[in-house]
Amino acid sequence: MADKQISLPAKLINGGIAGLIGVTCVFPIDLAKTRLQNQQNGCRLYSSMSDCLIKTIRSEGYFGMYRGAAVNLTLVTPEKAIKLAANDFFRQHLAKDGKLTLVKEMLAGCGAGTCQVIVTTPMEMLKIQLQDAGRIAAQRKLMPETVAAGTVETKSPTAIQLARELLREKGIAGLYKGLGATLLRDVPFSIIYFPLFANLNNLGKRGADGPAPFYVSFISGCVAGSTAAVAVNPVDVIKTRLQSLNRGSTEDTYSGVTDCIRKILHNEGPSAFLKGAYCRALVIAPLFGIAQTHASPPRSFYLSQAPLPPSAHSQGAG
Protein backbone atom coordinates (compact mmCIF):
# COMPACT_ATOMS: atom_id res chain seq x y z
CA MET A 1 0.00 0.00 0.00
CA ALA A 2 1.43 3.36 -1.00
CA ASP A 3 2.40 5.79 1.69
CA LYS A 4 0.32 8.89 1.98
CA GLN A 5 1.85 11.75 0.04
CA ILE A 6 2.68 14.96 1.87
CA SER A 7 0.74 17.78 0.23
CA LEU A 8 2.24 20.87 -1.36
CA PRO A 9 0.62 23.21 1.21
CA ALA A 10 2.27 21.18 3.96
CA LYS A 11 5.59 21.60 2.18
CA LEU A 12 5.05 25.35 1.97
CA ILE A 13 4.29 25.54 5.68
CA ASN A 14 7.31 23.39 6.57
CA GLY A 15 9.63 25.53 4.49
CA GLY A 16 8.16 28.69 5.97
CA ILE A 17 8.51 27.47 9.56
CA ALA A 18 12.10 26.46 8.98
CA GLY A 19 12.88 29.78 7.36
CA LEU A 20 11.30 31.83 10.12
CA ILE A 21 13.08 29.87 12.83
CA GLY A 22 16.28 30.22 10.89
CA VAL A 23 15.90 34.00 10.67
CA THR A 24 15.11 34.47 14.35
CA CYS A 25 17.70 32.03 15.73
CA VAL A 26 20.70 32.16 13.42
CA PHE A 27 20.37 35.46 11.56
CA PRO A 28 23.13 37.14 13.63
CA ILE A 29 25.53 34.43 12.42
CA ASP A 30 24.48 35.17 8.84
CA LEU A 31 25.22 38.87 9.43
CA ALA A 32 28.69 37.96 10.71
CA LYS A 33 29.22 35.80 7.62
CA THR A 34 28.38 38.69 5.28
CA ARG A 35 30.68 41.13 7.07
CA LEU A 36 33.56 38.65 7.27
CA GLN A 37 33.25 37.83 3.58
CA ASN A 38 33.14 41.50 2.56
CA GLN A 39 36.13 42.77 4.50
CA GLN A 40 39.32 42.86 2.45
CA ASN A 41 43.00 43.03 3.33
CA GLY A 42 43.85 46.38 4.87
CA CYS A 43 40.25 46.90 6.03
CA ARG A 44 39.92 44.10 8.56
CA LEU A 45 37.63 45.12 11.40
CA TYR A 46 36.73 41.62 12.56
CA SER A 47 38.98 38.71 13.37
CA SER A 48 36.26 36.07 13.81
CA MET A 49 32.52 35.49 14.07
CA SER A 50 32.45 36.14 17.81
CA ASP A 51 34.56 39.29 17.42
CA CYS A 52 32.17 40.54 14.75
CA LEU A 53 29.07 39.92 16.89
CA ILE A 54 30.61 41.53 19.99
CA LYS A 55 31.66 44.64 18.07
CA THR A 56 28.26 44.81 16.37
CA ILE A 57 26.43 44.78 19.72
CA ARG A 58 28.76 47.43 21.14
CA SER A 59 28.41 49.81 18.20
CA GLU A 60 24.88 49.11 16.97
CA GLY A 61 23.09 47.53 19.92
CA TYR A 62 21.47 44.11 20.16
CA PHE A 63 19.11 44.70 17.24
CA GLY A 64 22.06 45.68 15.08
CA MET A 65 22.63 41.94 14.66
CA TYR A 66 19.25 41.73 12.92
CA ARG A 67 19.88 44.29 10.16
CA GLY A 68 18.15 42.95 7.06
CA ALA A 69 16.10 40.39 8.98
CA ALA A 70 12.82 41.93 7.78
CA VAL A 71 13.75 41.13 4.18
CA ASN A 72 14.36 37.50 5.07
CA LEU A 73 11.19 37.27 7.16
CA THR A 74 9.22 38.45 4.15
CA LEU A 75 10.83 36.37 1.42
CA VAL A 76 12.32 33.30 3.10
CA THR A 77 9.01 31.40 3.09
CA PRO A 78 8.48 31.55 -0.70
CA GLU A 79 12.21 30.92 -1.26
CA LYS A 80 12.33 27.73 0.80
CA ALA A 81 8.92 26.63 -0.46
CA ILE A 82 10.07 26.95 -4.09
CA LYS A 83 13.26 25.01 -3.37
CA LEU A 84 11.52 22.11 -1.61
CA ALA A 85 8.50 21.95 -3.92
CA ALA A 86 10.60 22.21 -7.10
CA ASN A 87 12.87 19.39 -5.93
CA ASP A 88 9.83 17.21 -5.26
CA PHE A 89 8.37 18.07 -8.67
CA PHE A 90 11.53 17.18 -10.56
CA ARG A 91 12.11 14.00 -8.55
CA GLN A 92 8.55 12.90 -9.27
CA HIS A 93 8.88 13.44 -13.01
CA LEU A 94 12.38 12.00 -13.31
CA ALA A 95 11.48 8.82 -11.42
CA LYS A 96 11.16 5.65 -13.46
CA ASP A 97 9.14 2.87 -11.87
CA GLY A 98 9.43 4.71 -8.59
CA LYS A 99 13.24 4.71 -8.66
CA LEU A 100 15.81 7.45 -9.02
CA THR A 101 19.43 7.08 -9.97
CA LEU A 102 22.02 9.34 -8.34
CA VAL A 103 22.36 11.32 -11.58
CA LYS A 104 18.61 11.97 -11.68
CA GLU A 105 18.66 12.97 -8.01
CA MET A 106 21.33 15.52 -8.87
CA LEU A 107 19.33 16.75 -11.87
CA ALA A 108 16.30 17.27 -9.63
CA GLY A 109 18.45 19.28 -7.23
CA CYS A 110 19.78 21.29 -10.17
CA GLY A 111 16.22 22.15 -11.19
CA ALA A 112 15.32 23.17 -7.64
CA GLY A 113 18.35 25.45 -7.32
CA THR A 114 17.59 27.08 -10.66
CA CYS A 115 13.98 27.81 -9.69
CA GLN A 116 14.72 29.30 -6.29
CA VAL A 117 16.97 32.12 -7.57
CA ILE A 118 13.81 33.94 -8.70
CA VAL A 119 13.33 34.89 -5.05
CA THR A 120 16.83 34.36 -3.65
CA THR A 121 18.66 36.94 -5.77
CA PRO A 122 16.61 40.06 -4.89
CA MET A 123 16.24 38.89 -1.29
CA GLU A 124 19.98 38.59 -0.80
CA MET A 125 20.71 41.73 -2.81
CA LEU A 126 18.71 43.80 -0.33
CA LYS A 127 19.78 41.83 2.74
CA ILE A 128 23.50 42.22 2.01
CA GLN A 129 23.24 46.03 1.70
CA LEU A 130 21.51 46.24 5.09
CA GLN A 131 23.84 43.76 6.79
CA ASP A 132 27.01 45.40 5.51
CA ALA A 133 25.92 48.98 6.31
CA GLY A 134 27.17 48.59 9.89
CA ARG A 135 30.62 47.49 8.70
CA ILE A 136 30.94 50.54 6.44
CA ALA A 137 29.82 52.82 9.29
CA ALA A 138 32.35 51.23 11.64
CA GLN A 139 35.11 51.70 9.05
CA ARG A 140 34.19 55.38 8.83
CA LYS A 141 34.71 55.79 12.57
CA LEU A 142 37.59 53.42 13.29
CA MET A 143 39.44 53.40 9.97
CA PRO A 144 38.72 56.78 8.31
CA GLU A 145 41.62 56.30 5.92
CA THR A 146 39.62 53.54 4.17
CA VAL A 147 36.69 55.85 3.41
CA ALA A 148 36.73 58.07 0.35
CA ALA A 149 37.42 61.73 1.07
CA GLY A 150 34.31 63.88 1.27
CA THR A 151 32.02 60.92 1.98
CA VAL A 152 29.11 62.04 4.15
CA GLU A 153 27.59 59.64 6.65
CA THR A 154 23.95 59.05 5.84
CA LYS A 155 21.16 57.30 7.66
CA SER A 156 20.88 53.62 6.80
CA PRO A 157 18.10 53.13 4.24
CA THR A 158 15.29 50.65 4.64
CA ALA A 159 14.77 47.67 2.36
CA ILE A 160 11.86 49.42 0.64
CA GLN A 161 13.98 52.52 0.01
CA LEU A 162 16.78 50.39 -1.39
CA ALA A 163 14.40 48.48 -3.67
CA ARG A 164 12.83 51.71 -4.97
CA GLU A 165 16.25 53.24 -5.64
CA LEU A 166 17.51 50.17 -7.49
CA LEU A 167 14.34 49.94 -9.56
CA ARG A 168 14.45 53.64 -10.40
CA GLU A 169 18.13 53.65 -11.41
CA LYS A 170 18.58 50.22 -13.02
CA GLY A 171 15.14 48.71 -13.39
CA ILE A 172 14.43 45.10 -12.43
CA ALA A 173 18.04 44.22 -13.33
CA GLY A 174 19.17 46.20 -10.28
CA LEU A 175 17.48 43.72 -7.96
CA TYR A 176 18.98 40.80 -9.88
CA LYS A 177 22.60 41.91 -9.76
CA GLY A 178 24.73 38.85 -9.08
CA LEU A 179 22.19 36.48 -10.63
CA GLY A 180 24.92 34.47 -12.35
CA ALA A 181 26.89 34.05 -9.13
CA THR A 182 23.69 33.11 -7.28
CA LEU A 183 23.02 30.37 -9.84
CA LEU A 184 26.62 29.18 -9.53
CA ARG A 185 26.09 28.86 -5.78
CA ASP A 186 22.53 27.57 -5.45
CA VAL A 187 22.52 25.02 -8.28
CA PRO A 188 25.62 23.13 -7.01
CA PHE A 189 24.29 23.47 -3.44
CA SER A 190 21.05 21.73 -4.39
CA ILE A 191 22.88 19.13 -6.49
CA ILE A 192 24.90 18.20 -3.39
CA TYR A 193 22.26 18.72 -0.71
CA PHE A 194 19.17 16.88 -1.94
CA PRO A 195 20.76 13.57 -2.98
CA LEU A 196 22.96 13.56 0.14
CA PHE A 197 19.98 14.20 2.41
CA ALA A 198 17.82 11.60 0.66
CA ASN A 199 20.44 8.88 0.97
CA LEU A 200 21.42 9.72 4.56
CA ASN A 201 17.77 9.82 5.59
CA ASN A 202 17.15 6.55 3.75
CA LEU A 203 19.66 4.85 6.06
CA GLY A 204 17.45 5.55 9.08
CA LYS A 205 14.13 4.36 7.67
CA ARG A 206 12.01 2.05 9.80
CA GLY A 207 11.91 -1.08 7.70
CA ALA A 208 11.64 -1.13 3.92
CA ASP A 209 8.60 1.14 3.63
CA GLY A 210 8.44 3.18 6.82
CA PRO A 211 9.61 6.81 7.14
CA ALA A 212 12.76 7.72 9.02
CA PRO A 213 12.39 8.93 12.65
CA PHE A 214 12.29 12.71 13.01
CA TYR A 215 15.71 12.87 14.64
CA VAL A 216 17.26 10.99 11.71
CA SER A 217 15.70 13.47 9.28
CA PHE A 218 16.95 16.38 11.40
CA ILE A 219 20.51 15.05 11.59
CA SER A 220 20.49 14.16 7.89
CA GLY A 221 19.29 17.66 7.02
CA CYS A 222 21.97 19.24 9.22
CA VAL A 223 24.80 17.11 7.84
CA ALA A 224 23.73 17.50 4.21
CA GLY A 225 23.10 21.23 4.63
CA SER A 226 26.42 22.03 6.31
CA THR A 227 28.35 19.87 3.81
CA ALA A 228 26.76 21.58 0.81
CA ALA A 229 27.17 25.03 2.41
CA VAL A 230 30.91 24.63 2.93
CA ALA A 231 31.36 23.10 -0.54
CA VAL A 232 29.90 26.15 -2.30
CA ASN A 233 31.28 28.80 0.09
CA PRO A 234 33.86 30.10 -2.45
CA VAL A 235 31.01 31.03 -4.79
CA ASP A 236 29.10 32.57 -1.88
CA VAL A 237 32.07 34.86 -1.21
CA ILE A 238 32.07 35.91 -4.88
CA LYS A 239 28.31 36.50 -4.83
CA THR A 240 28.51 38.60 -1.66
CA ARG A 241 31.30 40.75 -3.08
CA LEU A 242 29.46 41.28 -6.39
CA GLN A 243 26.18 42.24 -4.72
CA SER A 244 27.71 44.73 -2.26
CA LEU A 245 27.14 48.26 -3.53
CA ASN A 246 29.05 50.27 -0.91
CA ARG A 247 32.78 49.87 -0.31
CA GLY A 248 35.68 51.63 1.33
CA SER A 249 38.00 53.66 -0.89
CA THR A 250 40.77 51.06 -0.60
CA GLU A 251 38.55 48.06 -1.34
CA ASP A 252 38.42 46.37 -4.73
CA THR A 253 35.44 46.64 -7.04
CA TYR A 254 34.52 43.88 -9.47
CA SER A 255 33.11 43.82 -12.98
CA GLY A 256 32.01 40.20 -12.90
CA VAL A 257 32.62 36.69 -11.59
CA THR A 258 35.93 36.18 -13.43
CA ASP A 259 37.27 39.59 -12.39
CA CYS A 260 36.26 38.91 -8.79
CA ILE A 261 38.05 35.54 -8.72
CA ARG A 262 41.20 37.03 -10.24
CA LYS A 263 41.40 39.96 -7.81
CA ILE A 264 40.67 37.87 -4.72
CA LEU A 265 43.36 35.35 -5.67
CA HIS A 266 45.88 38.08 -6.42
CA ASN A 267 45.21 40.37 -3.43
CA GLU A 268 43.99 38.02 -0.70
CA GLY A 269 44.99 34.49 -1.66
CA PRO A 270 42.94 31.27 -1.96
CA SER A 271 42.06 31.25 1.75
CA ALA A 272 39.79 34.28 1.18
CA PHE A 273 37.31 31.98 -0.56
CA LEU A 274 36.73 30.22 2.76
CA LYS A 275 35.78 33.39 4.63
CA GLY A 276 32.61 32.83 6.61
CA ALA A 277 32.46 29.11 5.77
CA TYR A 278 31.84 27.96 9.33
CA CYS A 279 29.28 30.75 9.80
CA ARG A 280 27.43 29.60 6.70
CA ALA A 281 27.48 25.99 7.91
CA LEU A 282 26.04 27.06 11.27
CA VAL A 283 23.26 28.98 9.51
CA ILE A 284 22.32 26.37 6.91
CA ALA A 285 22.53 23.21 9.04
CA PRO A 286 19.68 23.89 11.51
CA LEU A 287 17.54 25.59 8.88
CA PHE A 288 17.46 22.58 6.57
CA GLY A 289 17.44 20.17 9.49
CA ILE A 290 14.22 21.74 10.76
CA ALA A 291 12.69 21.89 7.28
CA GLN A 292 13.25 18.20 6.66
CA THR A 293 12.26 17.11 10.17
CA HIS A 294 8.72 18.38 9.73
CA ALA A 295 8.57 17.28 6.13
CA SER A 296 10.16 13.86 6.38
CA PRO A 297 9.17 12.37 3.01
CA PRO A 298 7.52 9.05 2.34
CA ARG A 299 9.29 6.30 0.46
CA SER A 300 8.44 7.71 -3.00
CA PHE A 301 10.77 10.64 -2.21
CA TYR A 302 13.72 8.28 -2.02
CA LEU A 303 14.59 5.16 -3.94
CA SER A 304 11.31 3.36 -3.36
CA GLN A 305 10.84 -0.26 -4.17
CA ALA A 306 7.41 0.06 -5.77
CA PRO A 307 6.10 2.13 -8.70
CA LEU A 308 4.63 5.51 -7.81
CA PRO A 309 0.82 5.59 -7.63
CA PRO A 310 -0.79 7.43 -10.58
CA SER A 311 -2.21 10.10 -8.24
CA ALA A 312 1.27 11.04 -7.11
CA HIS A 313 2.09 12.60 -10.45
CA SER A 314 -0.39 15.39 -9.83
CA GLN A 315 0.94 16.47 -6.43
CA GLY A 316 4.28 17.24 -4.79
CA ALA A 317 6.04 14.29 -3.25
CA GLY A 318 7.25 14.99 0.27
From TrEMBL:
Alphabetically ordered keywords of this record: Membrane, Mitochondrion, Mitochondrion inner membrane, Repeat, Transmembrane, Transmembrane helix, Transport
Subcellular compartments: Mitochondrion inner membrane
GO terms under biological process: malate-aspartate shuttle
Gene3D superfamilies linked: Mitochondrial carrier domain
Residues spanning the membrane: 12-29
Reaction it catalyzes: L-glutamate(in) + H(+)(in) = L-glutamate(out) + H(+)(out)
SUPFAM superfamilies (UniProt xref): Mitochondrial carrier
GO cellular component, one term: mitochondrial inner membrane
GO molecular function: L-aspartate transmembrane transporter activity; L-glutamate transmembrane transporter activity
Domain of life: Eukaryota
Solcar repeat ranges, renumbered to this chain: 6-93, 100-203, 212-301
Membrane topology field: Multi-pass membrane protein
InterPro entries linked to this entry: MCP, MCP_dom_sf, MCP_transmembrane, Mito_Solute_Carrier
Xref: PROSITE patterns: SOLCAR
Cited function: Mitochondrial glutamate/H(+) symporter. Responsible for the transport of glutamate from the cytosol into the mitochondrial matrix with the concomitant import of a proton. Plays a role in the control of glucose-stimulated insulin secretion.
Family classification: Belongs to the mitochondrial carrier (TC 2.A.29) family.
Name of the featured protein: Mitochondrial glutamate carrier 1
Record organism: Pleuronectes platessa
